[in-house]
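On clarity, I found the account of how folds are encoded harder to follow than it need be. Since the whole study asks how a given chain folds, the encoding of that fold should be made plain. The format is easy to grasp once an entry is in front of the reader. For illustration, here is how one protein appears when written out as sequence plus structure tokens.
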Amino acid sequence: MRFPQGSLSATVAQRFFEAADAPKNGLGGGYGVVGDEQIFLNATNSEGKPYSGLDDASFQDGLRRAAVSFGGPKPMVSSLGNATARFIGNDWQRSTRGECYQTLLGGSDGELVRKLDEISRCYAFLLAKTADSKGWAKDE
């Protein structure tokens, strides 16, 4: 969901999530925010079955209907698509720095881990930039 420039705050994002009645309508897997976009994912299990119980078309339709009925600031569906992601499999009590997961990716010095480190630094930069531009405190 894309909101008008400068209008998406933590409060607005949560209000949209609640207004969408997300848990009831299968949109309740959570969301992420980057800049003025609120991102919803219709995550699936290893067999390809959506945790939401909704196929992609129904999930997207639910977001469209939520955008139309939301008061303000008025969001719009910015883009739809498919992404492949893997949830991290790691014993966090034994491997507090993700060592088990790093092994699956070819080791801590492997190319994939180096690329993930680069993405992580970029994400941290963008997150800090967004927080500064929105006036968010570090403890929010």
